[in-house]
Amino acid sequence: MRHAFSVRIGPIGFRIGSDWRAPIATLETLYRNYPGPRDGVADFTVRLFARRPWRRFVRPSVEIGGDYMLPEAAPLPLRQGLLAAEMAMNLQMALGVRRYLLLHASAVERDGHAVLMTGISGAGKSTLATLLAARGWRFMGDEFALLDPATGLVHAFPRLISLKNEGIAAAEAAWPAARMGPLLRATPKGDIRHMVPDARAIATMDTPATPALLVFPRYGFAAETRPVPPAEAFVRMTQASTNYVALGEAGFRGLTGLIAQVPSVAIDYPDGASAIAQVEALWSAL
Amino acid sequence: MPDALYRGPPEDGLLIAPLDAFTAVYHRASGITHLLTEPAPQILAILQERALSLDSLLDRLERDYDLADGTREALAARLDELVEAGLVARL
Predict the structure, then answer these.
(1) Contacting residues of A for B21, CB less than 8 Å apart
(2) What ipTM goes with this model?
(3) Quick one: fold of B5-90?
(4) Does the CB of B12 have a partner CB in chain A at under 8 Å?
(5) For site-directed labelling of B35, which of A79, A127, A212, A274 has its Cα 20 to 30 A away?
């Protein structure tokens, strides 16, 4: 590829190649404090390419590819190149990771213990993790928590935080000095802005944590907290894991171990401040 | 015609994790995870030891697990479900 960039996020190394300079330049800027892949060898390769040579210039649109591909993925306009890179990196993770049980969850840590927050897009995973980090929690990731079935520990994956819609202003208010990517308006997921995790999150990304609490947040409802029975939590987490089936026995052991080990709680919340109070109250009661 | 015998997977063929009223069961041969409620985990445990007829299984459930409230018809229906799920073979 004409332009390339390599980075390591938590235990996963990526190499991103692109037909265009612009997305690579943005990635280099935003990921400048991250290390490169271990031993220089990336786990996954991502490609941002033009389907036809002239589409590099005429209404440039980014196709995403790599070791794993989704044939029906629609191309994105070049101005959303950063989102294309993010989606492509997520796809490689979702389909390719075998060493960890991949949980579609954000995670924050305190005193070596982690809170995992999982839910559908828009549930507030990224925003809640970002707001909790502003209150002294260590940010571990806003998209994937990596559960090691052999140890039961979760490993951090602090990629750029993908803020959406109302979450953008909330995170900017909590982290006024944070470095931000360009505001991407009207993407398939709404308005998106990427935020660089704080320096501590990056510096400590190789330190795993013991899961302590599993939270199922839901945004836009009156504040309410209810325990989630283990079987329901188990089923929801099999759905929230992109590689549960692929991992087979290790996935089963990892997930049943997690469910047995930590309480699961659903929280409905009307705004960020309320959610923070709910999560911290649950934490204090552990 | 002799009664059909039912047989479960070999002893190391399942991973079993009780959750609450549900028990998660990983079937090694298929790689499929099942969520089962009583008396299915008990049926599997008995049929993993040896193949049994419906009546013998009913006796064992009553004796070993005090599951005396089930009827023969109800047990036959549970067995059919386990056969359908691939966890029990009808011989």
Answers:
(1) 231
(2) 0.91
(3) Outer Surface Protein A; domain 3 (3.90.930)
(4) no
(5) A212
Task: Select the residue of A230, A249, A256 nearest B20 (Cβ to Cβ).
Answer: A230
Side-chain-side CA neighbours of residue A157 (13 Å): 29
What pLDDT is recorded for position A168?
A: 93
Per-residue pLDDT for A55 more than 90? Answer: no
Residues 253-272 of A with CB under 8 A from B: 253, 256, 259-260
Q: Which residue of B has its CA nearest to A238?
A: B33
Residue B69: is its pLDDT beyond 70?
no
Q: Is the pLDDT of residue A224 over 60?
A: yes
Average pLDDT over residues A170-176: 94
Contact A253 B15 (CB under 8 A): yes
More reliable by pLDDT, A97 or A50: A97
pLDDT at B1 over 60: no
For A101-284, the fitting CATH number among 3.30.70, 3.40.50, 1.20.120, 1.10.1660 is 3.40.50
Q: Where are the domains of chain B?
A: 5-90
Contact criterion met (CB < 8 Å) for A249 and B19: no
pLDDT score of A79: 82
Q: What percent of chain A has pLDDT over 90?
A: 77
| List of E strands, B1-91 | 5-7, 14-18, 22-27, 32-37, 52-53, 89-90
**Predicted local distance difference test score (pLDDT) of residue B64:** 86
pLDDT recorded at residue A56: 72
**Distance linking the first and last C-alpha atoms of chain B:** 13
Q: Minimal Cα–Cα distance from B1 to chain A, Å?
A: 40
Min distance B56 CA to chain A CA atoms (Å): 31
**Contact (CB<8Å) A235/B35:** yes
Q: Suggest the residue from B12, B14, B16, B22 to mutate for an interface test with chain A (most A CBs closer than 10 A).
A: B22
Q: Residue A207 has what pLDDT?
A: 98
